[in-house]
Amino acid sequence: MPFINFSKDEIQCKIVYYGPGFCGKTTNLQYIHAKMNEDIKGKMVSIDTQGDRTLFFDFLSLNLGKIRGFDIRVQLYTVPGQVHYDATRKLVLKGVDGVVFVADSLKVQRKQNIESIINLAKNLAEKGLNIRTIPLVIQYNKRDLDGTEFEILPLEVLEKDLNSVLKVPSFPASAVRGDGVFETLREITKLVVKDVSRKVMFEDQKMK
Ligand SMILES: Nc1nc2c(ncn2[C@@H]2O[C@H](COP(=O)(O)OP(=O)(O)O)[C@@H](O)[C@H]2O)c(=O)[nH]1
Ligand SMILES: [Mg+2]
Fold first, then answer.
1. Lowest CB count within 10 Å: 15, 32, 37, 195, which one?
2. Structurally, how many domains does the chain consist of?
3. Distance from residue 130's CA to the centre of ligand 2 (Å)
4. Which CATH number belongs to the domain containing residue 16 in this structure?
5. Atom of ligand 1 at shortest distance to CA of 52?
6. Which ligand is the nearest neighbour of the Cα of 19?
7. Ligand showing the shortest atom-to-Cα distance for residue 30
8. In which domain, by residue range, is 117 found?
């Protein structure tokens, strides 16, 4: 369930950017934070784990309306992607309402992408959540490397590897350029707000 802050009349929705190390999670958050309007965003907080960081900031969602008269505050988190940070990832997933899975388009990262999405499914399951039902969006990052000396995977291959069963909305992106970053954010926020509204409505019904 999302956190309801009655003193501020806000409902907090938590979105986690998940994916293998160096796929571009931090770059996504930095781009969003840099482009967002001062008056709606909070400070970017960085929690250091050795060699990698967990980033966090929140913003007030103004364009998706309200839930039961409450404002919607969206919290964005990244997790450290490296395999050995599984404990941190589990902590960050606590209370998650939606996930952006950032895949690395680099061909050499094919196996890491698949391992990471399996790790996500497992860590969600430990929290009683199902990867097939939680609001989820997949982003295929680093598309700007197409046509360079780095080999990248065609979108069809990435779709087949990561989205053939889940069939969730997916977006090609370049987080360094900012392409696809807000498209991804808009879609996951929309899905989360829809899902959270439904849950809050359901809780209301139970109280009656
Ligand atoms: N070419 C390219 N590089 C990227 C892109 N996104 C991130 N990177 C680079 O990949 C590296 C890892 O990015 P980072 O955001 O720290 O990855 P994280 O470990 O998932 O947080 C950095 O050097 C980024 O500049 C992208 O869209 N295109
Ligand atoms: Mg990072």
1. 37
2. 1
3. 24
4. 3.40.50.300
5. 19
6. 1
7. 1
8. 3-207
Q: Which atom of ligand 1 is nearest to the CA of 179?
A: 27
DSSP string, the chain: -PEEETTTTEEEEEEEEE-STTSSHHHHHHHHHHHS-TTTB---EEEEETTEEEEEEEEEE-TT--BTTBEEEEEEEE---SGGGHHHHHHHTTT--EEEEEEE-BGGGHHHHHHHHHHHHHHHHHTT--TTTS-EEEEEE-GGGTTSSS-B--HHHHHHHHHTTT---EEE-BTTTTBTHHHHHHHHHHHHHHHHHHHHHHHHHHH-
Instruction: Specify the ligand 1 atom closest to the Cα of 23.
Output: 20
Are 184 and 98 a contacting pair, CB within 8 Å? no
**End-to-end Cα separation, the chain, in angstroms:** 19
Q: What is the model's pLDDT at position 51? A: 64
Whole-model pTM: value is 0.95
pLDDT tens per residue, range 83-127:
778 888 898 999 999 999 999 999 999 999 999 999 999 999 999
Number of the ligand 1 atom closest to the C-alpha atom of 150: 1
Residues with CB under 6 A from ligand 1: 19, 21-27, 78, 81, 141-142, 144-145, 174-176
Q: Whose CA is nearest to atom 13 of ligand 1?
A: 24
Q: How far is CA 4 from CA 75, 98, 99, in A?
A: 13, 16, 19
pLDDT band of residue 80 (cuts 50, 70, 90) is confident
